[in-house]
Amino acid sequence: MIKSKHQTPIILSLFFLSAAAAASPTAYDLLQSYDFPVGILPKGITHYDLDPSTGKFNAYLNGSCSFSLEGSYQLKYKSRISGYIYKDRMTNLSGVSVKVLFLWLNIVEVTRNGEKLEFSVGIASADFGIDNFFISPQCGCGLNCNSLDQDWKKENLRSNPFVSSV
């Protein structure tokens, strides 16, 4: 068997590339680095891209996603969610909507104020305690996917009604 003197650097390069890929942060890690809880995105984000100089991001699901929370809020996520992310603020969002009464409204901004998150649909907003977002909901069933999630929800999920901000 003939060995190349260049074989070791190639193997080391492959090792470092695979180690770097394994250590790359997830979309959920990215949220936390900007002071947001992981639960504002559903489970199943496959990948994302971010321009750190502008804050422009895209997060991707395998397909669209919808679920209900507390039986009163229905949420829909498109397969691509985009916007701009900064510490404690996400703006120009697209790909996320909430059903209010009979209308689907796009969530355009999310702001963190201490232990509250404010979700804006432009003409109105709603504040929720950050403890509502410690876990990510699952497409199709939200937080009611199994008894463990349901027990957690009964003890920890508190929501406030949608309020006008105009």
How would you characterize this protein structure?
The chain has 166 residues and is of the alpha+beta class. It has one domain (25-164): Roll (at5g01610, DUF538 DOMAIN). 20% of the residues lie in helices and 38% in strands. The chain is built from 3 helices and 10 strands; from the N terminus they run ααβββββββββαβ. The chain has helices spanning 7-23, 27-33, 147-156; strands spanning 47-51, 56-60, 65-69, 73-86, 89-100, 103-106, 109-113, 116-120, 124-129, 163-164. Strands 1, 2, 3, 4, 5, 6, 7, 8, 9 and 10 form a 10-stranded antiparallel beta sheet that branches. The longest helix is centred in the first third of the chain and has 17 residues, at 7-23. The protein is globular, with a radius of gyration of 20 Å. This is DUF538 domain-containing protein. InterPro entries: At5g01610-like, DUF538.
- How many E strands? 10
Report the portion of residues in β strands.
35-45%
Instruction: Using the coordinates above, name the CATH class.
Output: Mainly Beta
CATH architecture: Roll
Mean of residue pLDDT values: 80
Number of discrete helical segments:
3
Kindly report the CATH topology: at5g01610, DUF538 DOMAIN
Q: Could you estimate the helical fraction of the residues in percent?
A: 10-25%
H and E string? HHEEEEEEEEEHE
Largest sheet: 10 strands, antiparallel
Number of domains: 1
Q: In whole angstroms, how far apart are the ends?
A: 76 Å
Instruction: Describe the global form.
Output: globular
**Helix/strand class:** alpha+beta
Q: What's the gyration radius in Å?
A: 20 Å
Catalogue the unreliable spans.
Answer: 8-21, 147-166
